[in-house]
Amino acid sequence: MLRSYKGITPTLHESTYIDESAVLVGNITIGKDSSVWPLVAARGDVNYIKIGERTNVQDGSVLHLTRATTNNPSGYPLIIGDDVTVGHKVMLHGCTLGNRILVGMGAIVMDNVIVGDDVIIGGGSLVPPNKTLEAGFLYVGSPVKQARPLNPEELAFLKVSAQNYVQLKDEYLQES
């Protein structure tokens, strides 16, 4: 489940839950009360992955990054903030997600995308490279388009969703 690459092994907070079928390789850091669910593949091999606190990455998601090149000397790491819900079968590649975000099932977020805080990305959406998603909005489609501002209930739900997964991961940890 946790594998080293070039001598670097994932670093997890002691409260993190990682399902035994998930595979995490290399330079990955995961914060307090976060969780990684069945069949997630995360490769921190040619850059790094940083996952914040109370963030959940759900079943079948793929997390990767972009290596440094002469045209892009830093490459693109994958950075995920706090209180983020990454839905089932999401692909995140070399992007930056702020805090309190929900990425809907089957969405794809590509290289050098920056997602502001308090955002919902609809299921099945494609966020093409180099796009910035402004804070406080719902984005849907392929390619993604800004649909409308989030309402107060949706904004509140972003933290509730994250907290629900903190509770669930605690239940899983009690079972082991």
UniProtKB/TrEMBL annotation:
Top-level taxon in the UniProt lineage: Bacteria
Protein name (record): Gamma carbonic anhydrase family protein
